[in-house]
């Protein structure tokens, strides 16, 4: 990213992952949120949820999900 002049910052937070990601994106006025996805099954999503689904559903920032 630095070769292309794109600034990237790393943050460590505790709490509900989706909520923390959205709150940080708002605080930093981020243009884009990029998330990884492990491709959980529907049963896994029902039992433990999906951070990427939560962020896509609740964030006002553009969100890109990259599947593994």
Instruction: Give the number of DSSP strands.
Output: 2
Q: Enumerate the spans where pLDDT stays under 50 for 5 or more consecutive residues.
A: none
What's the average pLDDT?
85
Globular, elongated, flat, extended or rod-shaped: what is the shape? globular
- Treating each run of at least 4 consecutive H or I residues as one helix, how many helices? 3
For the biggest β-sheet, the strand order reads 1-2
Strand content: 15-25%
Helical residues, percent: 25-40%
Secondary-structure element sequence? HEHHE
> What class would the helix/strand composition place it in?
alpha+beta
Radius of gyration: 13 Å
Calculate the terminal CA-CA distance, rounded to whole Å: 20 Å
The biggest beta sheet is recorded as:
2 strands, parallel
Short account of what is shown:
By secondary structure, the protein is α+β, with helices and mostly antiparallel strands. It contains three helices and two strands; from the N terminus they run αβααβ.
């Amino acid at each position: 990213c630095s070769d292309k002049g794109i600034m990237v910052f790393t943050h460590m937070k505790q709490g509900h992952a989706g909520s923390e990601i959205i709150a940080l994106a708002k605080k930093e006025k981020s243009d884009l949120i990029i998330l990884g996805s492990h491709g959980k099954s529907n049963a896994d999503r029902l039992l433990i949820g999906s951070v990427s689904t939560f962020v896509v559903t609740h964030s006002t920032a553009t969100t890109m999900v990259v599947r593994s």
